[in-house]
Amino acid sequence: MNRRERRAAARQSPQVASQHLVTAKSLEAAKQGQSLFKLGRYAEALECFDAFEKFNPDVAPLYQTRGLCLQRLGRLAEAQADFEKSIALNPLEAETHKNLGTLHARLGRMEQAFASFDRALALRPDFSAALNEKARALWSLQLLDEAFATFHRSLAVAPDNADTIWNLALLQMLTGDFERGWLGREARWKAPSLGLAERGFSQARWLGDHPLEGRTILLHADEALGDSIQFVRYAPMVAALGARVILEVKSAVRPLLAGISGVADCIDRSSTPSLAFDLHCPLGSLPLAFGTRPDTIPFADGYLPAPPAARVESWASRLGPRTQLRVGLVWSGDPGHKNDHNRSIALRALVPLLDCDVQFVSLQKGIRDADRAFLAGRSDMIDLTEQLTDFSETAALMSCLDLVISVDTSVVHLAGALGAPVWIMLPFNPDWRWLLNRDDSPWYRSMRLFRQKKRDDWASVVDSVRRELEGKIAAWQARQSGSHPRG
C-alpha cells in the first residue's frame, strides 16, 4: 500500500482501513511462507500460508504452494485437496496438474497420475518437468522403453534440465548402462529436487584425469550413509595411485570407515576447513573416475576390516547362548526418505518369518509407533538397538549373527561390505544399484535379492524369504546335531 492509498484508507471507516492493513499483513505472511518453504522449514511455512488463506481464500497459487508444503510434511490427503482447489480456481495452470499427477503416482493411483500429466502437457506441450514426472511414473510400472522415450522427449525440450538428466541416469544404471549412467549422475549437484550443494572447494575435482603420486586428495561423502559405505571401497584404489587419502564422512560411520585400507585420516565435516589437500572427489563420483562397469566392480567379497574381537565378544555375551539360527532383522528405513513408502514394510507383515524357528535380533533403529506396539508383544525377538551407538557397534553385533534380512537400507551395505550373509527384500521398482531380473548383486557377493513381482506385493517376497529361511534353519540344525538334512 503506497502513501496515497494509506491516506485514503484513513479517511474511510475504521473497518475498511483495518481490511487494508490485514491484506498487507497477509501478503507479508505469504512472502515469509515462500521463503521458509525454500529453506525446507515446511511446518513454519504452512502456518504462514494458513494465515494468508484466512483473508485470501480464492487465490489459486496459494493452494498449489501449500499443497507442495503439505506433501513434504506427509499430509497427502490435504495436499491433494489443495491441488484440486487450485485447479478449480485456475484450471489452466499446467504446474498444478503436474503436481497433482506426481501425488497420484506417489500413492500408486497411476491412471489418475497419467490423466493429470496429460492435462498438464495439453496445456504446455513443452513442459519438461511434466515429461520428467510422467517418465518416472512409467518407470515405476517398469514400462522402461516408454520411460526412456519420455525422458529423451523431456531433454529435447530442455537439454540442461538437471532433474531429468539425473533421473535418466538412474534408469540407465538400473538397466546396466553404467558408462552413460555415471556421467549423468554428475548432474546431482544441479538438480533442484535433490537439494545438494557443491562444496565450493578451490582445489580441482579429481575424476581420474590427474596424476595422484605424492598428492593429498580429500574423498568426501556426498549422499546417504549407505552410499558412503558402498563407495568407500574405492579408497584403497585411490591410495594405490600414490595419493595420501583423507576421508570425510558423517560421524555415524566415521569409526567404522576409519580402518579402511589406504586411508591416512578419517574425519567428519567439521574438521575439513582447516585441512590442506591438493584435489578432492565426492565418494559418489569415484565409480566414474575408475570407469566402473557391472563386471568390474571392485571388492565385492567385502572390504571393511573385521570388528575388534573384544567388541564382538561383548555382543556375544549380551546375546547369550546360541541355541537357534541367529538372524538380524530390519524392516524399515528413514521415514524422511523420498522413497520410504516404496521400500519399508510394517513389522506385522513379517509374521510368516517371525514364526520360524529362529532367534531374531532386531537391528532396526528408529522404530515407528505402530511397529513398537507390535514388537512389545514379541518377547521372542532380542532388541538391543539402544546400545547401537554407531555403525561400528552394528558391525560387531552383525558378526555374531548367521544372517541379516533387511529392506533396502544402509544396513545391507554394511553387511555386504563386511562380507556377511545378507538377504534384501526389494520393491517392484528397486533402487538403481540392485539392477533388474537377478537374485544376486555385483556389488556384494554375500547378498541375495528377493524382489516383488508386482507393485506393493510384499506377501510374495516374505513367502519366498520364509521358504529359503526354512532350508537354512534345517541345514543349521543338521550341523548342530552332526547329521545331514534330507534332500
From TrEMBL:
Alphabetized PROSITE patterns for the sequence: TPR, TPR_REGION
SMART domains: TPR
TPR repeats: 60-93, 94-127
Superkingdom of this protein's organism: Bacteria
Keywords linked to the UniProt accession: Repeat, TPR repeat
InterPro entries listed in its UniProt record: Glyco_trans_9 (IPR002201), TPR-like_helical_dom_sf (IPR011990), TPR_rpt (IPR019734), Ycf3/AcsC/BcsC/TPR_MFPF (IPR051685)
Gene3D superfamilies: Glycogen Phosphorylase B, Tetratricopeptide repeat domain
An MF annotation (GO) of this entry: glycosyltransferase activity
A Pfam family: TPR_16
Protein name (record): Uncharacterized protein
Naturally occurring in which organism (per UniProt): Bradyrhizobium manausense
